[in-house]
Amino acid sequence: AQKVTQAQTEISVVEKEDVTLDCVYETRDTTYYLFWYKQPPSGELVFLIRRNSFDEQNEISGRYSWNFQKSTSSFNFTITASQVVDSAVYFCALSEAPDSWGKLQFGAGTQVVVTP
Amino acid sequence: GAVVSQHPSWVICKSGTSVKIECRSLDFQATTMFWYRQFPKQSLMLMATSNEGSKATYEQGVEKDKFLINHASLTLSTLTVTSAHPEDSSFYICSAFRTSGTDTQYFGPGTRLTVL
């Protein structure tokens, strides 16, 4: 069963628009990590954020922000004032339980296309 | 930050040949490394967990005799695709798990394998 769901396959925006990427996860563990990665056309994964299950504080880093809501099992990602360089595939991922730290279960990814 | 390298970055081979891909952690020791596979326009799927000095643990559906993993040192894991076929063509990405300090996973840049 899919444990990480990214329902949006592709999102197209015009530069300077905001874009929000949805991520819904499923786990029975009380301790887990959630991640967001960016994969530009080069293919190399770029780490964006890691959040543990006990920290529900929202986080902002420059134009990026994340909204973690355990009540809805969601970990959404917003890019504010998008730029062409933000065009990439974005993956949400889940890592469960101490004995599986490091094993990431990825969502299907969301392709973001930012046009000038 | 920590760096993980992969070699080669891309390889083209004939059907039936074997291909070895190396994953190195350049500035830290990694007792655990992971191998992922990504088909075009798809997500990353975990293939196996590579443990230094012991046998790799394969995910369900991954043929261990076809994808040989060796983790002979704390900085090197190799993935050998034996008797490669066109359906093995994919993007192979490794990651190294750093357990000193905060548990953090670092991804390599990936290896693109094309089997003719």
Brief summary:
The complex is a heterodimer of chains A (116) and B (116). Chain A has 116 residues and is mainly β. Chain A has strands spanning 4-5, 10-14, 19-21, 24-25, 32-39, 46-52, 59-61, 64-69, 74-79, 88-96, 105-106, 110-115.
Question: Can you offer a commentary on this structure?
Answer:
- The complex is a heterodimer of chains A (about 120) and B (about 120).
- Chain A has about 120 residues and is mostly beta strands.
- In chain A, a hairpin with a 6-residue loop joins strand 5 and strand 6.
- With about 120 residues, chain B is mostly beta strands.
- Chain B has no helices and eleven strands.
- Chain B starts with a strand and ends with a strand.
- Chains A and B meet through strand 11 of A and strand 4, strand 5, strand 9 and strand 10 of B.
Radius of gyration of chain A: 14 Å
Q: Give the averaged pLDDT of chain A, no decimals.
A: 93
Number of strands of chain A: 12
User: Over the alpha carbons, how many angstroms does the gyration radius of chain B reach?
Assistant: 13 Å
Alpha-beta classification of chain B: mainly beta
Count of helical regions of chain A: 0
Structural class of chain A: mainly beta
Oligomerization state: heterodimer
Percentage of residues in strands of chain A: over 45%
Described by strand count, sense and barrel closure, the largest sheet of chain B is: 7 strands, mixed
What overall form of chain A do the CA principal axes indicate? Answer: globular
How helical, in percent, are the residues of chain A? under 10%
Give the biggest sheet of chain A: 6 strands, mixed
Series of H and E elements of chain A: EEEEEEEEEEEE
User: Could you name the ranges of chain A where pLDDT drops below 50 across 5 or more consecutive residues?
Assistant: none
What general form of chain B does the structure show?
A: globular
Order of helices and strands of chain B: EEEEEEEEEEE
